Amino acid sequence: MTNLWRDDIFDNLVRLKRGHDLPNQNIISGKFPVVASSGIKDFHNDFKASPPIVVTGRSGTLGEVQYITEKSWPLNTTLYSISFRDNLPKYVYYYLKEMHLENFNAGAGVPTLNQNHLQKLKIRIPQLDIQKKIAAILSTYDDLIENNKKRIQILENMAEELYKEWFVRFRFPNFENTEFEKGLPTSWQRIPLMQLCNEIKNNVKKQDLNADTKYVGLEHLSRKDIAIYDYSTADTVDSNKLKFKKSDILFAKIRPYLHKVCLTHFDGVCSSDTIILRAKDPIYLPYILFTVFSETFVDLADVSSNGTKMPRADWKFLQKVVFSIPPNDLMEKFHKICMPIFVEIENLLNQIDILTQKKDSLLPRLISGKLSVENLDIQFPASMLEQ
Predict the structure, then answer these.
(1) Please, are residues 103 and 111 in contact by the beta-carbon 8 Å criterion?
(2) Which of 84, 114, 157, 314 has the fewest CB atoms found within 10 Å of its own CB?
(3) pLDDT tens-digit profile of 151-164?
């Protein structure tokens, strides 16, 4: 390994530069991503960096590392690569992820990353062919994870589109032979949401939580996505939480316009700023999920929210909102179609967990050189390789 790795400094791995100012009023909608410290913030009609680009947080959010494959505008809250010093960009990306840059905070108030300090850090850099092998192994895991996410999105879209077709456009089975009055089927009932589900307020004190209990904070919930891709454990929390069960619906109470509505696929605890909904009858679950996930309901939650800086959804109001509910036979048909979709989504999420854990275990050993890439044979189950 002596000849394949060399002792060096960080500045000879990658040269980073501070991102560029872009006042909000100057953001003109376009095709180029505006990259903030925690992800893509907007799209602009101009760019400052050409791919491949590695971006990480300079101020505010530290520790996130992004690999950008298109022309973009890194914001002034970031540091981005301007030279890879003849190293492989994808390897540099994985190296920075393993550095845990949040531990290099140099700010007194707002978390800040000092690039001058980074440049002098002593590190070990492998030869380019080793970098390529390491990046190829880790990229395989990332590609499989991304493929599973795309499959989940397709499944979600299928179920949501069926909901819209049946319960919004009223093109449900046998609708041609259904009697309508004022645009609504006469056989449907008008009832408030509270008759279909309960709000669950099962408080759990911090000291009563098992350390390995899965914890879902608002930061873990995806926008406009019913799947939960990320979570933490209860040993990271510092306050009391709410307990939820598998197949509960989580609705982020704070700033409801962010549209964070998810279906749980495991038991766990969540932020007290989450509304937990549980169907009174299992056949109602898919209908309730896509109803509260709809743009219409989220907009209603937003306009009726309380507070200015941190508006919170008002469940006392929302639970009284009246909906047109189909007869049980149609509700059962929708449930019968959706549940296998939810099961498949759960299976794909579990695969993502396995892939992520394996990748996270390999990353530090590969980046440090403790695990040799020579003759390293990694096998993936056939089900994970299906397209």
Answers:
(1) no
(2) 157
(3) 999 999 999 999 99
